[in-house]
Amino acid sequence: PDRSRKVVPIAEAAERRRGKVAREKLHDIADAVEGLAGDPDAPAHFTMLGNMALLEGAFEEAIEAFSRTLSLAPEDLSALAGRGRARAAMDEHALALADYDRAAALAPDQARYHLGRANALGRLGRMAEAVAATTRAIEADPLSAGAHYTRAVYRSHLDDDDDQGVKADLDRTVELASRRMSRSTARSGPTTCSTEYDLAIVDLDRAIALEPGKAQLHYLRGKCAHESRSARRDGVRVRLTDQEAHQRCDAAVASLERALELAPTEGELRGDILWALVCVRETIGEPKAHLEAIDAALAVLPEEDWPMLLPIREQVKRRLDDAGGGPA
């Protein structure tokens, strides 16, 4: 199949990701710029102005500010990468490539500069070189889910039909995105950051665009959507409105039900999906749907897991009976 028709463009996905954190960063950058006001000719001053313009979508202003930085400090990596991003956003991909080439040459151990090169090369139609650039990024950071996903995208555009290579990169993307989600789930208190779930969802959406029939991807996305409703940011619990919390739970249910449609009728994955649905239904607080999820899980999960579910089932059944009856 022509996977290129299913690919979410890298730049669009990247812009969505940046949009999620832009509001958080903008205030900090504004404070930093104000702090540098006493030295308006410092390279850092123009870099901060460029970052602010970039986050506001003022790409021409960003290019001008980063260029001022580079006139004073030609090897400033932040300015090179920032100008590369701004130029890419204006479809000036050859110029963006020149900036990322310089950054990658100055810091070959930094994966993000190789990824910048890859995206510029891809937009210029130089797919084989884009694959080579993402390989360099993976060598620099083997645990980068984004690098593996990006290489899968550009491999899918090559003429040699490297389906095995694409599949291997997608599998690795899933594995690394799962690790990110697990780390987020395991953390508590001030170290848990709600944006980690959002970033994991972005990674998973990218992979789903290429492999929409992979049950594990939809399962992991559902888990992330559910966990994101109660995360913390900077040590403070994120307070969602009831509508926002319901939207995240609804998204989790949709992903998990899709995973259930795609999963084998037997096996550990199906049990994991059903268990996750039980948790989401409990959060939503609809006893009938919660009871149905529990019964579906009991039909699949091994008997050693039943002691955890049966007491919950009795409680839910009691609430249904008190409300006017429920299934036997």
Percent of residues in beta strands: under 5%
The run of helices and strands is HHHHHHHHHHHEEHHHH
Mean pLDDT: 77
Radius of gyration: 23 Å
Helix count from the secondary structure assignment: 15
Alpha-beta content class: mainly alpha
Keywords:
328 residues; mainly alpha; two-stranded antiparallel ribbon; 15 helices; 2 strands; 74% helix; disordered N terminus
Helices and strands in order, then pairings?
Blueprint: H1 10-35, H2 43-56, H3 59-72, H4 77-89, H5 93-106, H6 111-123, H7 127-140, H8 145-156, H9 163-186, H10 194-210, H11 215-227, E1 232-233, E2 236-237, H12 242-262, H13 268-284, H14 287-298, H15 306-323
Antiparallel strand pairs: 1-2
Helix pairs in contact: 1-2, 1-10, 2-3, 2-4, 3-4, 4-5, 5-6, 6-7, 7-8, 8-9, 8-10, 9-10, 9-11, 10-11, 11-12, 11-13, 12-13, 13-14, 14-15
Describe, in plain words, how this protein is organized in 3D.
The protein has 328 residues and is mostly helical. 74% of the residues lie in helices and 1% in strands. It has a two-stranded antiparallel ribbon. A hairpin with a 2-residue loop joins strand 1 (232-233) and strand 2.
